[in-house]
Write a structure and sequence with these properties.
8 helices; 229 residues; 4-stranded antiparallel β-sheet; 2 domains; Arc Repressor Mutant, subunit A; globular; 12 strands; Rossmann fold; 44% helix; alpha/beta
Length: 229
């Protein structure tokens, strides 16, 4: 375990917060615990973190608002939401903000560690050199390592999830990208909430690619998606 990995934990339940902090520290993560969204934001501005674990329902500043504020400072830092609620609307809202994962209480500590490690592993893989870093998608140029989609002199910085999903679509261009394969490759688990998250990111990618009518991401009913170019 890389002991330099630093986690921001925002949780207003004192008992759960202390339990999570102690567990994460025992697993080798340097962890700072904050009792509300406001103090968590100030802590984020003072320190460098590798990943954020944010409770959704917190006083002073809720988890969604905190995530938006954090992403204005660092658009790429991974965020996992922790919540006692299991409402579909909240899950979708979280993924629209750009959450990397979403866990509903009560959850297994071991599963939390697994998901943290999976996210950090994906980020590490994104920073590794690959045989091809730039792809051409119709009129667009897609730089995988920089996570930038460019067209006609304009650049769009993609989120990690957008970049991972677009890379899979490009790798399977003009072929069906199996839905379950994409979910397990990027989200680790093909459950309902992750599936809805992927739908949100597909919609975002369609908007990013809308200026070239020859490029299209279509739904293949019962199977997945196909990038036509």
């Amino acid at each position: 375990m890389d002991t330099k990995i630093k986690i921001l934990l925002a949780e207003d339940d004192e008992n759960l917060g202390l339990l999570l902090k102690e567990y994460l520290i025992a697993k080798g993560y340097d962890t700072d615990l904050f009792p509300d969204g406001e103090t968590a934001y100030h802590g984020f501005m003072r320190n460098q973190y590798n990943i954020c674990l944010l409770d959704v329902m917190m006083p002073k500043k809720d988890g969604f608002t905190l995530a938006r504020d954090i992403r204005l400072v660092n658009a790429d830092i991974p965020v996992i939401f922790l919540t006692a609620k299991n409402l579909k609307e909240d899950v979708i809202e979280g993924f629209k903000i750009g959450a990397d994962d979403y866990m509903t209480k009560p959850f297994s500590m071991e599963e939390l560690i697994f998901r943290i490690e999976a996210i950090l592993r994906r980020i590490s893989n994104d920073n590794q050199p690959s045989d091809q870093n730039v792809y051409h998608i119709g009129l667009y140029s897609f730089d995988v390592r920089k996570q930038i989609l460019s067209h006609d002199g304009e650049e769009v910085k993609l989120t990690t999830k957008e970049s991972e999903l677009l890379r899979l679509l490009v790798a399977n261009a003009n072929k069906v990208l199996e839905r379950n394969y994409a979910l397990k490759a990027i989200w680790i688990d093909d459950n309902y909430f992750n599936a809805r998250s992927m739908d949100v990111y597909i919609t975002k990618l369609r908007k990013h690619l809308k200026d070239d009518p020859s490029v299209e991401i279509i739904n293949v009913h019962g199977k997945g998606y196909k990038l036509i170019m």
